[in-house]
């Protein structure tokens, strides 16, 4: 309907329809009301977009942690891949070797052996000098036993067989992670009050068997008690377990909800490109916050572990091993956020963005011109690519995003690979479009004009 004129009801006595023409004052009032409604509508969209963005940014780090927890708990291969490096970590190996050696040597009654030897020599009427020499054998004998035991245990712990035993035990007891988070008393990793302990029973059995085979019959008496190593102790374990249970439940849907909220924030905002930049930048900042939080938690954890219970280097190795995939995921999302913000900026009107686009266009145009000079014209294909460049560009970007979504545990390297392929494809498409040439376009237009 034309706002400047509105039809009046026809007269009862004639066929002529009269139209009301808006006066200047009425038109000005109409334009004012329309602008006011438009501004109000845009303001509401911006407010709604800001609320959605705030929710998405708050949920982003929680979604990353929840997905990591669920992945580690539910995927056996992923869990084994997480804990496998502990068996080959030198600091952890040293702790295990020292603990086993102390327990085995303490279980060997060296003093009883020397006392029996002294008594036997006395009963046999040995000279006093020989008896005194036998009494002084306790120290050297204890050192010899410790040396042999340490060497045997070291061979076991540093062997490939131990690595296989370690991975096999963790694969069979994959529920250990769930036990730690829920407080169950089964599996290799378990929660005892405010401490988290590692059950090394299978390793104890392996070492005991090796020592018996090496001739240490006393090793068969190694007790089955005290077969755990305290990983860390914290009064906040109960709260962490509650939080992890919630994150485990939301592990699947929280990331989906976060992505949907971010997408709605971009869609509802009138300035889609600017909002995409803001969203990507915000997500990147939240990933930085998560990395800082992991570093702070690491420091708190190391300070909470008594050095006599677990050396600092071993505790650091354990923590870094357990959270390394979480760090990798956070860094990957940070890189994706930076790339997204940069791409959104390059589509904008800024002078640097225009300069980059101009340089890229000149380069692809020159390459296409070179192909034409070499006789390699793309013809109708190139013209179609040139006419549908926004669609082809969007398709390539969408394909790259889909590849990352479908990629199983993408890393920064995977993002770089997908980005490189996408950029290469876009460059090739631009060159093929430029290789069509203006002459081919004019010929097409002439052909279309002469067609009946």
UniProtKB/TrEMBL annotation:
Keyword set, alphabetical order: Membrane, Transmembrane, Transmembrane helix
TM stretches of this protein: 50-69, 249-267, 274-297, 329-347, 390-407, 413-435
Statement: the UniProt record of this protein carries the keyword Coiled coil: no
Keyword match Glycoprotein: no
Source organism, top-level taxon: Bacteria
Designated name of the protein: Integral membrane protein
Organism annotation: Streptomyces ipomoeae
Source species taxonomy: Bacteria, Bacillati, Actinomycetota, Actinomycetes, Kitasatosporales
């Amino acid at each position: 309907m034309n706002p400047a004129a509105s039809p009046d009801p026809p007269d009862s006595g004639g066929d002529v329809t009269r139209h009301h023409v808006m006066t200047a004052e009425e038109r000005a009032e109409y334009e004012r009301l329309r602008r006011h409604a438009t501004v109000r509508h845009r303001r509401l969209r911006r407010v709604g977009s800001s609320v959605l963005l705030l929710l998405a940014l708050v949920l982003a780090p929680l979604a990353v942690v929840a997905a990591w927890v669920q992945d580690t708990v539910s995927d056996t291969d992923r869990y084994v891949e997480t804990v496998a490096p502990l068996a080959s970590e030198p600091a952890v190996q040293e702790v295990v070797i020292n603990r086993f050696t102390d327990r085995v040597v303490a279980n060997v009654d060296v003093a009883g052996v020397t006392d029996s030897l002294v008594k036997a020599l006395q009963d046999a009427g040995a000279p006093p000098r020989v008896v005194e020499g036998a009494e002084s054998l306790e120290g050297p004998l204890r050192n010899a036993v410790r040396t042999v035991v340490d060497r045997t245990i070291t061979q076991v712990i540093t062997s490939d067989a131990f690595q296989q035993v370690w991975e096999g035990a963790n694969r069979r007891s994959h529920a250990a992670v769930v036990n730690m988070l829920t407080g169950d008393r089964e599996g290799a990793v378990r929660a005892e009050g405010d401490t988290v302990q590692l059950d090394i029973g299978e390793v104890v059995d392996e070492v005991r068997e090796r020592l018996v085979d090496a001739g240490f019959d006393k090793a068969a008496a190694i007790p089955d008690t005290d077969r755990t190593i305290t990983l860390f102790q914290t009064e906040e374990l109960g709260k962490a377990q509650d939080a992890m249970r919630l994150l485990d439940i939301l592990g699947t849907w929280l990331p989906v909800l976060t992505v949907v909220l971010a997408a709605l924030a971009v869609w509802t905002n009138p300035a889609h490109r600017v909002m995409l930049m803001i969203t990507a930048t915000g997500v990147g900042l939240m990933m930085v916050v998560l990395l800082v939080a992991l570093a702070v938690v690491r420091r708190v954890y190391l300070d909470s572990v008594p050095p006599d219970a677990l050396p600092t280097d071993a505790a650091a190795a354990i923590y870094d091993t357990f959270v390394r995939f979480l760090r990798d995921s956070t860094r990957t999302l940070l890189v994706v956020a930076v790339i997204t913000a940069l791409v959104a900026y390059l589509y904008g009107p800024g002078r640097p963005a225009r300069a980059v686009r101009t340089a890229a266009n000149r380069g692809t145009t020159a390459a296409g011109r070179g192909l034409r000079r070499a006789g390699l014209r793309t013809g109708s294909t190139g013209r179609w690519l040139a006419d549908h460049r926004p669609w082809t560009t969007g398709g390539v970007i969408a394909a790259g995003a889909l590849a990352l979504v479908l990629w199983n545990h993408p890393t920064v390297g995977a993002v770089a690979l997908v980005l490189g392929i996408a950029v290469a494809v876009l460059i090739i498409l631009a060159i093929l479009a430029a290789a069509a040439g203006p002459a081919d376009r004019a010929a097409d237009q002439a052909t279309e004009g002469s067609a009946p």
